[in-house]
Amino acid sequence: MYKKVILIIAALLCVIVLGIVGYISILLLGDYVIDDKKFVMNSATTLVDENGAEITKLYVENREIVPIKKIPKHVQEAFVAVEDRRFYDHHGIDVKSISRALYRDVLSGGKAEGGSTLTQQLAKNVFLTNDKTIMRKVKEVVIAINLEKRYTKKQILEMYLNQIYFGHGAYGIQAASKLYFNKDVSELSTEQGALLAALPKAPSQYSPILHPEKSLERRNVVLDLMGKIHDLTPEQVVRMQGKTLSLDVQQEAKKKDYLTYIDMVMEEARTKYHLSSEELLRGGYTITVPMNKDIQSAAYELFQDPAYFSGTDDGVQGAFVMMDEKTGGIRSVMGGRDYVQKGLNRVKIKRQPGSTIKPLAVYGPALQEKKYRPYSLLLDKYTSINGYSPHNVDGQYDGKVSMYDAIRESKNIPAVWTLNKIGISTGKEYLNKLDMPIDDNGLSIALGGLSDGFTPLQMVAAYRTLAHNGERIEPHFIDEIKDRSGEVIAKPSLKETKVFSKQTAWNMTRMLEGVVRDGTASGGTFDGALAGKTGSTSYTNVKGATKDAWFVGYTPDLVGAMWMGYDKTDQDHYLTKGSSYPTRLFKKILTNSKVETAAKFKKPKGVKDLAEPIRVKEIDDLSSEVTFSAFGLFTNELTWTPAEDKRVTYYIYEKKDGKKAKRIGEVTGKGRYEVKNVHVLNPPSYYVVPYNKQTKQKAKKSNVVQTSI
């Protein structure tokens, strides 16, 4: 008997010692099995506009981490009631529940299942697989006990609620709250919290979207459990079980119109701020972007309309960029008509710019170097210039033409002639200042005939110098990046580089307004102030075919570029129309997105305004009438129909005695001139010559009239 007692005591001591050793071993193993880095959960990066309104999310797992203090107590209680009612009493494992589960495992053949505490579920989800084995269960227990040792109950519950999956792509309670109820987790009611607590066991089976009846039954079970552990009174349980699911589902749709913009944001985050795409999808950043959703949506919708894309088939492509004139923030971007994520982004592909280069490489430098003025006369006749023989597209040559009209009508000869006069090296120097270096060295630069060309992004940045006092700014897609804690970790440099003077930029703006008003960019309709330039390049293998078509322009607030063409132009694939199509589409996007139309271009201080061009017309109705006045003198009154422009000057010429005609006077803005003391016995003849003071250019002389009584 004595020996039996000794054996029992010895056995008990062994069990106690083994238990103590086992527990100590579990604690010691904690440092090896728990890797705190695994608690850094994937969370969605949110793109917001400048007002803080959400645009879209980027994620591997749609999760928004929230602190426990933001989760209402009644929501916490719902999860504890259904998942682990003794959560606040145990130290990681519930001995009673796990014993019952192990007993069932033995009967069922050794598969570990059931009996898991909330802490064990966290341990399994974060550190382990879903394998149902005894070894996995042992590891789960070891980790759970050590989690309880290392973290408080509130911390464990916070990690659990942020980690679990709620179905339909929602990870964590905040994403679930926004998905199912369109509200912040802090606003959840008790019955809504109970519905969310009902989902983790089987998100698909109990989905309130797919299976509302099963979901309602499961929610009511959770409410009943909350009543049993006295979180709710019996009356509260009954009242809440009688309520509907009250869903306000906000499933995120894939916004195809944002795809190019999102890709550009991710690229900028990688190249400028060294955040990989993987980090953006997992890091929970908040990225403020300068997108204008109205312009972006209008551009996307109009890009789908084939009426704006004229080619030999439906394969005509396009690229579009719109930038804020002041900040350089990109308001809208389209990489193609059928752009797919990570696909061919035509905004970054270089194309020959055609005549859109003229203000940048020719006329802007000519003004800046003070070699010419807006109304200086330029050569406009078919000729060879240093061995290069360009021609005007319309085949019309005026002999001489003002810079204003050369730009307005997009004449080629004057551009080439001017570049030759200022020097190719000068034109290239200004392209370098615009961050548009080229290797080309011929006069074809003046017409955009380049070996590579420029991207729409480059063109937008360059034309911004004309829109904004001659200063260039680097375009950007990211205004600000904040990390999970709300700390700003990245902002763009808004450094500006001086390229042209304010006077040069203003003169170019005035001339480019003329291009839109009654020049090559007059097609289409936009009611606001707009300046810009068209451009196109020919596909020489087919007569009349166009390879690239452009419009680059700006309002007082926005700068944009539109390109059209084929990804590869050949004899079967080319544009059948020129720059009028991108011009009309550009204006339509501005109109449909309700861009401000009241604002006008504002002349900078200290800058001289550029007057509208003086328009003269030929005179063919000059007439003469002689009248007799006092003292026996005769007066010859000459009359003609004057031009509408009152700034036109008229030179009056008299010819008599067979001698060379002599200028005897001038009037401005009138169609009448009196010649006094006319000798009627030897009557002279007269004619009038209109004169443009801007260009210092005379028009053809009028018809000749003879004095007669």
Short description:
By secondary structure, the protein is an alpha+beta fold. It contains 20 helices and 24 strands.
Which class of the largest domain in CATH terms?
Alpha Beta
* Helicity level: 25-40%
Strand order of the largest sheet: 2-1-5-11-12
Largest sheet: 5 strands, mixed
- CATH architecture annotation of the largest domain: 3-Layer(aba) Sandwich
Radius of gyration equals 40 Å
- General shape: elongated
The number of helical segments is 20
CATH topology of the largest domain: Beta-lactamase
Number of domains: 4
End-to-end Cα distance:
166 Å
Please report the total strand number as a whole number.
Answer: 24
Percentage of residues in DSSP E strands: 15-25%
Given helix and strand content, the structural type is alpha+beta
Mean pLDDT: 90
Low-confidence stretches: 15-28
CATH homolog superfamily of the largest domain: DD-peptidase/beta-lactamase superfamily
Protein model, in words:
The structure is a single chain. By secondary structure, the protein is an alpha+beta fold. The chain has four domains: 1-31; 64-241, Biosynthetic peptidoglycan transglycosylase-like (Penicillin binding protein transpeptidase fold, Orthogonal Bundle); 302-592, Beta-lactamase; 623-706, Immunoglobulins (Immunoglobulin-like). The chain contains 20 helices and 24 strands. Strands 2-1-5-11-12 form a five-stranded mixed β-sheet. A five-stranded antiparallel β-sheet has the order 7-6-16-15-14, sandwiched between helices. Strands 19, 20, 22, 23 and 24 form a five-stranded antiparallel β-sheet that branches. Strand 14 (531-538) and strand 15 form a beta hairpin. The longest helix has 32 residues, at 2-33.
